[in-house]
Amino acid sequence: MKVGIDDISLYVPGFYFPLTELAKQHGIDADKYLIGIGQEKMAVPSPDEDIVSMAANAAAPLLNSAVVNSISTVILATESGIDQSKSAGMFVHGVLGLASNCRVIEIKQACYGATAGIQMAYAMIHQRPHERVLVIATDVARYQQNSEGECTQGAGAIAMIISSAPRILEIHPHQGRHSVDVMDFWRPNQHKAALVDGKLSIDVYLDSLKQSWKNYRKDGGRPLVALQHLCFHQPFTKMAKKAFSVFETIEPDAAAKIGARSYQLSQIYGREIGNCYTASLYIALLSLLDNSEEDLSNHHVGLFSYGSGSVGEFFSGTIVEGYTKHSRKGAHAAMLKYRSALSYETYQNWFYQDVAADVASYRVPTLTSGQYRFSGSEGFRRLYAPSLHLQKKAG
Ligand code: HMG
């Protein structure tokens, strides 16, 4: 049975902060960010956006009534949790009006969470092929102000339908996993921003790729020359180049054959968005699919998922014949094109603002252009609503 990604959709906030401006504020050469890190813009959520509203906005285009009625499970992956008990997926289930016989869970393993979700969905669909699973990756990547990590921040969500009749990517059964307990990146409960040992995190990521690749090959996975494309977890796009250099070291002939073109299309979206933690690898995949002028039907793609802490997994898939007919690249391109640049002051206020811990009820003005928004809190209960412009249209 073929199981894989049947449909995929991206949501990115309508605002960004240019990294040339961040470099100016930090008093450094902009090329460090543009070339050294490989980032141009950082997607910034407005105060009426969070992981739930972004997830709902990513998932909404995938949901016609036939799809809604067959979704057995919503798996939401995030490391930007908005509640310690109630899952963000449950809020999304409510906002999107999903069926009550659909189970909902939230998964956390840093940036690896969505891949865990996909592998769980893969097994679920093998068990019950008539059903679908909605996997959502949604995050706000936030580091401390003026830290080295600030230039890699970003926000966004990816939603994917996993089914037994995949129209986008058939996932192969081979898996190369590698886990090791390490403190490379973490966020203690009392911190809104992540703490990171940046250089260690890069070393651990690269070793994880090496070990995961070894395990993927041991599990019967395809040789490197049989993979036309590579998508890596991209906390910043230079990381894809660093990841490819692992193959240049351990598989020099094959790496020379497939060359840098195997990963370059996967960098285009990430450069415009920044790190989206759980969503980053799938933004790389979408970037490849949306930006290729060549029809990639039947091409094989290798994917490396990495989540600090750390879990790595190398797996692969085949792009399904006719996938372009189901592409949402026009909507994605428009979403990225029609964003507004923020001033440094607004970026700081929006990105680092927080409501005091003892404020139970408040309202948030409408700023997002997304269909769904976070509208505030009532007695510590988070509230979500269709955006005002949609309510007006409906009225
Ligand atoms: P840094 O110390 O500011 O940067 O931190 P640097 O001094 O290492 O410079 C970066 C690159 O810019 C270097 O190139 C410089 O040479 C170059 P490289 O040697 O790496 O090829 N450079 C310039 N290039 C052109 N013109 C110039 C110039 N100046 C310097 N003028 C670091 C960089 C990535 C460590 C920092 O941004 C950071 O801590 N980021 C956050 C952590 C991170 O993204 N880690 C990646 C691996 S871990 C991961 O992916 C998991 C994660 O997504 C979380 C999760 O799983 O949940 C983070």
- Which regions contain 5 or more consecutive residues with pLDDT less than 50? none
Examine the secondary-structure arrangement and name the CATH architecture: 3-Layer(aba) Sandwich
Number of strands: 18
Name given to the CATH homologous superfamily: Thiolase/Chalcone synthase
Number of domains: 1
Note the main sheet.
10 strands, mixed
How much helicity do the residues have? 25-40%
Instruction: Tell me which ligands are bound.
Output: 3-hydroxy-3-methylglutaryl-coenzyme A
Beta-strand level of the residues, as a percent range? 15-25%
| Ends apart, CA distance between termini | 46 Å
CATH class term: Alpha Beta
Number of helices: 15
Mean pLDDT over all positions? 96
The CATH topology is: Peroxisomal Thiolase, Chain A, domain 1
Shape descriptor: globular
Counting helices, strands and paired strands, the structural category is alpha+beta
Radius of gyration: 20 Å
Characterization of the model:
The chain has 395 residues and is of the alpha+beta class. The protein contains 15 helices and 18 strands. It has a single domain (4-394), classed as Peroxisomal Thiolase, Chain A, domain 1 (3-Layer(aba) Sandwich). The strands form four sheets. Strands 1, 4, 5, 6, 7, 8, 9, 12, 13 and 14 form a ten-stranded mixed beta sheet that branches. A three-stranded mixed beta sheet has the order 3-2-15. A hairpin with an 8-residue loop joins strand 16 (362-363) and strand 17 (372-378). Helix 3 (51-59) packs across helix 5. The radius of gyration is 20 Å and the shape is globular. The site of 3-hydroxy-3-methylglutaryl-coenzyme A has 30 residues, from helix 2, helix 7, helix 8 and strand 13. 3-hydroxy-3-methylglutaryl-coenzyme A binds at residues 29, 31-32, 35-37, 79, 110-111, 148-149, 151-152, 185, 196, 198-199, 201-202, 205, 233, 235-236, 238-239, 275, 277, 306-308.
